[in-house]
Amino acid sequence: MFLTIPTIMTWTRIVAIPLIVGVFYLPIAPATMNLVATVMFVVFALTDWLDGYLARKLNQTSAFGAFLDPVADKFLVCASLLVLVHLNRADVFVALIIIGREIAISALREWMAQIGASRSVAVHMVGKLKTTVQMVAIPFLLYHGNLFGFIDTNLWGTWLIWASAILTVWSMVYYLQKAIPEIRARAK
């Protein structure tokens, strides 16, 4: 099902990437850029939850949607991290950890699916927690100011993005531990 409501919502996350990046090239005040990019990221990130909910509710789940959903999430997170590194709001080391993990685990999942062992690397709670922390950290760092006059989003975003990097490593280790018995079995 290529053009269902949930799949179209997933596509919007991919379309959002040049829009979020482009905001920082507009001739507008930095505070306005930050606010617009933050709102856009939050709105598009919420489609991740909403498209899954609608797919189940409307019985419009599909193999294509199951493939595209995590790809869209990874594109959105990776593009946002690159913007944050460019703006000196996120450390390049954090970005490398997060992006490197996404590439490694995606490749691992593809290989495990090819050998018929995709269940051993199915999404786990630590992976969902990692994603949640990232989805909170990124808009804080995009906003880059004081929220409600007392929440330093740069400070909180920095702590959260480092926490997500730790969770990223933890989840990668978890998935690799789950895959190792299959890898050893195939090596014999």
The biggest sheet amounts to: 2 strands, antiparallel
The stretches of 5 or more residues where confidence is low (pLDDT under 50) are none
How much of the polypeptide forms β-strand, as a percent range? under 5%
Topology order in helix (H) and strand (E) letters: HHHHHEEH
Q: Quote the CATH topology.
A: Four Helix Bundle (Hemerythrin (Met), subunit A)
CATH class reads Mainly Alpha
Order of adjacent strands in the largest pleated sheet: 1-2
Question: Rounded to an integer, what's the Rg over CA atoms?
Answer: 18 Å
Notes on the structure:
- There is one protein chain.
- The chain has 188 residues and is mainly alpha-helical.
- The chain has a single domain, classed as Up-down Bundle (Four Helix Bundle (Hemerythrin (Met), subunit A)), CATH 1.20.120.
- The protein is 79% helix and 2% strand.
- The chain has six helices and two strands, in the order αααααββα.
- It has a two-stranded antiparallel ribbon.
- Helix 1 runs antiparallel to helix 2.
- It is globular and about 60 Å long.
